[in-house]
Amino acid sequence: MCEACERRTRPEALPLCPSCWSLREQRVAAAPKGTRLESAGLWLGGLSFIPLPPIVMASLIVNIMVLARAPPGERTKGLVGLGLTFGGLVVTISVLALVFSRDL
Ligand SMILES: [Zn+2]
What we know:
The chain has helices at residues 3-6, 18-30, 34-47, 53-69, 76-103. Helix 3 (34-47) runs antiparallel to helix 4 (53-69), helix 3 (34-47) packs parallel to helix 5 and helix 4 (53-69) runs antiparallel to helix 5 (76-103). 73% of the residues lie in helices and 0% in strands. The protein is elongated and about 70 Å long. It contains 5 helices and no strands.
């Protein structure tokens, strides 16, 4: 990282020059692989509130994977994702129950 980029206002701010960009990309690639899965789990957890069973199922699987892979003490995101999923599961079951009871 060059001097100009090190003097950015915040450490997480984006680098200024191309060489530092490539340096940053290397670092991101070397970062723990869980991060992307965790984000996906949180997104899917939020999307679970749309009553679509495939999304809820995918969210459940992804968040369980996040929890299984996360080292102890770093399971917060997985637990939040799983919590969201269960919330979405309740919503989905309620909506489906409502739809089916109306059809009968
Ligand atoms: Zn730079």
